[in-house]
Amino acid sequence: MHFVEAKSLLSANNGMNLYRGCTHGCIYCDSRSKCYGMDHAFEDVEAKRNAPQLLENALRRKRRRCMIATGAMSDPYMHCEEELRLTRRCLEIIRQYGFGVSLLTKSDRVLRDLDLLRDINREAKAVVQMTLTTLDEELCRIVEPNVCTTKRRVEVLKTVRGEGIPTVVWLCPILPYLNDSTENLDGLLDACAEAGVRGIVNFGMGLTLRDGDREYYYAALDRRFPGLKERYIRRYGTAYELPSPNERALSERFHRRCEELGILHSPEDCFAFLSALEPKCEQLALEL
Q1: Residues 6 or more apart in contact with residue 74 via CB below 8 angstroms
Q2: 197-232 in b/e burial notation, b at 16+ Cβ within 10 A?
Q3: Who contacts 205 (Cβ-Cβ below 8 Å, separation ≥6)?
Q4: C-alpha dihedral over 120, 125, 128, 129, to 10 degrees?
Q5: Rounded distance, CA 273 to CA 4, Å?
Q6: Whether 118 contacts 163, CB under 8 Å
Q7: Nearest CA among 18, 2, 141 for reference residue 74
Q8: Would you tell me how many other CB atoms lie within 10 Å of the CB of residue 115?
Q9: E runs forming strands in the chain
């Protein structure tokens, strides 16, 4: 791990990444791709030491409250957060200035900050998003080796929802020949329904691979699933999009079941919910 003094923090869409790189070790991680221009080893996490100060300066200048998002490129609750607490300090600032927050993680460390998330949700809006890929705990430990497994993440979703905080699941990636089965999809959707999630983000039943990410993924396949890399190469070559052979049937089933369960399931609807920050009085009126 190393530190930098960042020049800016919030993107044009009010997203922020407090870290660059990750220690969760997910074999499919797009953030490893060369196109992002990372000039250090991926596991040598870069921490933006002055992120809280940059965030406070940015929020002071804003004329209207909005949702602040984090987790798109780097998990805000990776291992170093236990000591550095950059995410917690930023949540404290978001609470102080009355903004909302949506965060995406695979880690149960998010429960440490339930007190802040409750406060933010009471005064504005907080949304906790979690990635789920497979119900197979053994497979989960292979493809996402250094983070809590799906079973624990579902428990976290239930705990968060029990506090009145809405949740959204990212059901991706779906890895061809590994987790692209009807049984896995149905099991994950059942878990989402039981946890009371508001929406599920899915961009199609498959994954994407770019230069940098592709090499890491294929090396992991060679180590844990001998022969599977060659199967990928025969079918997909060096394509960016790798749809599951079962993509059409799985996608139709996904959307149909989400409709039946009353769960938001188009990316557009999910992102509209994540980005909306209505005045609390309007929210209460709609609920009544």
Answers
A1: 17, 18, 19, 20, 21, 22, 31, 45
A2: bbbbbbebbbbbbeebbbebbbebbeeebeebbeeb
A3: 174, 180, 243, 244, 246, 247, 250, 251, 254
A4: -150
A5: 33
A6: yes
A7: 18
A8: 12
A9: 2-4, 15-16, 19-20, 46-48, 67-70, 100-105, 126-132, 167-171, 199-201, 206-208, 241-243
Whether the CB-CB separation of 224 and 25 falls below 8 Å is answered with: no
- DSSP state, residue 113: G
How long, in residues, is the chain? 288
CB atoms within 10 A of CB 186: 14
d(CA 62, CA 56): 10
- CA–CA distance, 248 with 205 (Å, rounded to integer): 8
What backbone phi and psi angles, to 5 degrees, belong to 274? -65, -35
Amino acid letter, residue 269: D
**How far is CA 209 from its chain centroid?**
17
Single out the residue of 162, 129, 134, 170 nearest to residue 149, CA to CA.
134
Other residues' Cβ atoms within 10 Å of the Cβ of residue 166: 19
Sequential pLDDT tens for the chain (288 residues): 999 999 999 999 999 999 999 999 999 999 999 999 999 999 999 999 999 999 999 999 999 999 999 999 999 999 999 999 999 999 999 999 999 999 999 999 999 999 999 999 999 999 999 999 999 999 999 999 999 999 999 999 999 999 999 999 999 999 999 999 999 999 999 999 999 999 999 999 999 999 999 999 999 999 999 999 999 999 999 999 999 999 999 999 999 999 999 999 999 999 999 999 976 644 444 444
DSSP state, 230? H
CB burial of residue 141 (10 Å; 0-12, 13-18, 19+): middle
